[in-house]
């Protein structure tokens, strides 16, 4: 706007907030953030409404940042280059994708997967009374297998915490 009034910052979505939290987790694992700083910044990232708010969380941290490269902009105060490394410059750290991989034949993301699996028993009961056939109840495990696969949901169940500890230990 040419009248001197600053333009409204462009709003961000869940994907950008999640990318920022993952980048913060990477910095915590690298020892740049302690647990309290990580928690504070993660809460701010989760509540951020614009890219500028996310960029402010990374002003004192090296790359990776909050996914600004995906939008072609660098965090505030930093310039983004695609040139080769200069001698003595630190190598950029690789960013490991930690998103939850999909399972099952249907490849449905959350929250749709949970919704479909939750509605299946209700639909099975309704169809049982309408058709008077008990075979509709077999749809419950079949739909769950199609949506989540034989391993089930990630991070749910009695041994989820144990699996997470084991996975972190093996890193």
What would your notes on this structure say?
- It is a single chain.
- With 171 residues, this protein is mainly α.
- Among the domains are: 58 residues, no CATH class; 58 residues, no CATH class.
- It is 44% helix and 0% strand.
- The protein is built from six helices and no strands.
- Helix 1 runs antiparallel to helix 2 and helix 4 packs antiparallel against helix 5.
- The longest helix has 20 residues.
- The radius of gyration is 22 Å and the shape is elongated.
- The chain starts with 13 loop residues before the first helix and ends with a helix.
- About 16% of the residues have low confidence.
Characteristic key phrases:
171 residues, mainly alpha, 0% strand
Short description:
With 171 residues, this protein is mainly α. It is 44% helix and 0% strand.
- Spell the H/E element sequence: HHHHHH
Radius of gyration: 22 Å
Detail the poorly predicted runs: 68-89, 95-99
Oligomer: single chain
Label the overall shape: elongated
Helical amount: 40-55%
Q: Find the structural class using helix and strand composition.
A: mainly alpha
Total number of β-strand segments? 0
> What is the mean predicted local confidence, pLDDT?
74
Number of helices: 6
Largest sheet: none
Portion of residues in beta strands equals under 5%
Q: End-to-end distance, in Å?
A: 50 Å
InterPro entries: DUF1707_SHOCT-like
Keywords: Membrane, Transmembrane, Transmembrane helix
Protein name: DUF1707 domain-containing protein
